[in-house]
């Protein structure tokens, strides 16, 4: 089995609360994605922006956005990941979906809701930590504010790649970059942070999307304040060799999170 994973991520300028316009724009961008891509990653709420009006945007799990993701994955032969505003079980969720080329869908509901911005008043938090798989790679997908909570991100020797999709504001960009590096180092894992650019009604975003390796070294990064695609190739063999040579993970503390489904 090929131990390499080719990942393409989009540092996107999201059109505010306009699903149709965003999907139309994305159709043109998808045509430029590398044909070797195994996993295509979009930012948090890529179809609408970080809105606190989910009742205006939300769809069911088989709505137009998920259908677009399924069509895109099937037509291009890669898995696609991004967070979508979903209405399910009488509540709104900030739900990260991973759609595979064969139509299979995995999902994770954002655990840490940004109460400072009222997200907790408009969305229901998730209680499942979900490790997903693409081409033999174990992936832990998380969303934006989750980045500030290291226990939730902790590698239990059960993932190879940690992904954060985000709408992370420009004024706190140094925090974003510092924590991404910290998560790579403490978890001995590849880390990908995919953030948006542009502006919404109240906030500006610089992007700072990047891929870091298991030593915290930046492998690739998007251009500041500019929409664009970036492709990186990750090596599972190199990750395993490093974790074998420097097995700090063996000395990690065990822990149990109450009220969480593993």
In the CATH hierarchy, what is the architecture at level 2?
4-Layer Sandwich
Low-confidence stretches: none
Strand content: 25-35%
- Average per-residue pLDDT, rounded, comes to 97
Physical arrangement of strands within the biggest beta sheet? 5-4-3-2-1-14
The helix-strand sequence is EHEHHEEEHEEHEHEEEEEEH
Number of separate helices = 7
The CATH class assignment is Alpha Beta
How many distinct beta strands?
14
Overview of the structural elements:
The chain is built from seven helices and 14 strands. By secondary structure, the chain is of the alpha/beta class. The protein has a single domain (4-251), classed as Nitrilase/N-carbamoyl-D-aminoacid amidohydrolase. The chain has a six-stranded mixed beta sheet with strand order 5-4-3-2-1-14. A six-stranded mixed beta sheet has the order 6-7-8-9-12-13, covered by helices on one side. A two-stranded antiparallel ribbon has the order 10-11. 42% of the residues are buried.
Concise synopsis of the structure shown:
The chain has 262 residues and is of the alpha/beta class. The chain is 24% helix and 30% strand. The radius of gyration is 17 Å and the shape is globular.
């Amino acid at each position: 089995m090929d131990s390499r994973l080719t990942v393409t991520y989009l540092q996107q300028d999201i059109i505010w609360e306009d699903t149709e316009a965003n999907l139309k724009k994305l159709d043109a961008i998808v045509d430029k994605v590398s044909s070797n891509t195994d996993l295509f990653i979009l930012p948090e709420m890529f179809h609408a922006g970080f809105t606190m009006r989910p009742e205006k945007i939300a769809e069911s799990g088989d709505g137009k956005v998920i259908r677009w993701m399924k069509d895109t994955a099937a037509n291009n032969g890669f898995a696609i990941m991004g967070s979508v505003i979903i209405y399910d079980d009488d509540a709104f969720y900030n739900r990260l979906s991973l759609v595979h080329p064969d139509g299979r869908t995995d999902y994770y509901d954002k655990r840490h809701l940004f109460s400072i911005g009222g997200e907790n008043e408009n969305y229901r938090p998730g209680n499942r930590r979900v490790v997903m798989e693409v081409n033999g790679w174990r992936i832990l997908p998380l969303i934006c504010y989750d980045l500030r909570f290291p226990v939730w991100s902790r590698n239990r020797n059960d993932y190879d790649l940690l992904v954060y999709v985000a709408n992370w504001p420009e004024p706190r960009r140094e925090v974003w970059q510092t924590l991404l590096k910290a998560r790579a180092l403490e978890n001995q894992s590849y880390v990908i942070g995919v953030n948006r650019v542009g502006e919404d009604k109240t906030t500006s975003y610089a992007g700072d999307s990047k891929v870091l390796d298991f030593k915290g070294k930046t492998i690739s990064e998007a251009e500041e304040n500019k929409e664009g695609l970036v492709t990186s190739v990750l090596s599972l063999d190199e990750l395993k060799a490093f974790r074998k040579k420097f097995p700090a993970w063996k000395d990690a503390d065990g822990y149990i999170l109450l009220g969480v489904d593993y």
